[in-house]
Design brief:
- The complex is a heterodimer of chains A (112) and B (116).
- Helix content of chain A is 0%, strand content 48%.
- Chain A is built from no helices and eleven strands.
- Helices cover 0% and strands 47% of the residues of chain B.
- Chain B has no helices and ten strands.
- Classes of the chains: A mainly beta (112), B mainly beta (116).
- At the A-B interface, strand 5 and strand 10 of A face loops of B.
Chain lengths: 112, 116
C-alpha cells in the first residue's frame, strides 16, 4: 500500500504571511494514463473534507487563487500565498493512483 | 454544484448490521464512480469501497472485504453501503464521496458507533 507523509504536522502562521505544506508518497503517483492523482483537502472542525486542489495543481471552483499546488512523482507541495483567518483547519493530501487510495496524516494550521 | 446527502448510521452492537445511503443531486450521477470513506478522530480519512457507473467494477479495502457491500440505484441517483458483522474497530464517521481517485464531492458524514 502507498504511504503518504506530510510535514509539518502542525503550522502556526501569521495572517497575511505565506504557508507551505509538503506531502510525500512511498510510490510514484503517476498513473498508467499519465495522470497524477494527488489531491489536497481542507477539513474544518466538525465538517466534511473539502477538496481544494485535484491532480496536483488544478484548483477547484470557488477556491481562492491564494492556494496553489505543485510537484511530481513522489513529492508535492500545497502553498497558501497569504493566509487568511478562514484557512484554519487540517489539510490532507490524498493519492488516488494506487488502490487502496490513501490520505496523509494531516497538517493542522492555525493563526499565530 | 454537486451535493451528496447521507442517511443511516447510529449505534449497533458488535456483530450487528447497518445500512448507509447517499443520494446525489446537482451533477450527472451516472457519469461517476462513487465511493465510501471513513474517519476516526485525529486521523485522515480511510478508503472503504468504490463502485463504477454500471456497478460492474467494485473494490473494497481489505479491512471490510466480505463484510461490507456497496451497491447503487441509478434510477434514484443513490448508492448504499451495507455493513454486516460490524466490529468495534468499525466505529467512525462514514462519508460518501464522488470520484474516488479525486474525491470531488463529499456527504455530510454519518456516525457509526459499534459498542455493547
Amino acid at each position: 500500500d502507498v504511504v503518504m507523509t506530510q510535514s509539518p504536522l502542525s503550522l502556526s502562521v501569521t495572517l497575511g504571511q505565506p504557508a507551505s505544506i509538503s506531502c510525500r508518497s512511498s510510490h510514484s503517483l503517476v498513473y498508467v494514463t499519465g495522470h497524477t492523482y494527488l489531491n489536497w483537502f481542507l477539513q474544518r472542525p466538525g465538517q466534511s473534507p473539502r477538496r481544494l486542489i485535484y491532480q496536483v495543481s488544478n484548483r477547484d471552483s470557488g477556491v481562492p487563487d491564494r492556494f496553489s499546488g505543485s510537484g511530481s512523482g513522489t513529492d508535492f507541495t500545497l502553498q497558501i500565498h497569504r493566509v487568511e483567518a478562514e484557512d484554519v483547519g487540517t489539510y490532507y493530501c490524498m493519492q488516488g493512483t494506487h488502490s487502496p487510495f490513501s490520505f496523509g496524516p494531516g497538517t493542522k494550521v492555525d493563526i499565530k | 454544484q454537486g451535493l451528496l446527502m447521507q442517511s443511516g448510521g447510529g449505534l449497533v452492537e458488535p456483530g450487528g448490521s447497518l445500512r448507509l445511503s447517499c443520494t446525489a443531486s446537482g451533477f450527472t450521477f451516472t457519469d461517476h464512480y462513487m465511493s465510501w470513506f471513513r474517519q476516526t478522530p485525529g486521523k485522515g480519512p480511510e478508503f472503504i469501497s468504490y463502485i463504477s457507473q454500471s456497478g460492474s467494477d467494485i473494490l473494497y479495502a481489505d479491512s471490510v472485504t466480505g463484510r461490507f457491500t456497496i451497491s447503487r440505484d441509478n434510477a434514484k441517483n443513490s448508492f448504499h453501503l451495507q455493513m454486516n458483522t460490524l466490529k468495534i474497530e468499525d466505529t467512525a464517521v462514514y462519508y460518501c464521496a464522488s470520484e474516488p481517485r479525486t474525491g470531488g464531492h463529499w456527504g455530510q458524514g454519518s456516525l457509526v458507533t459499534v459498542s455493547s
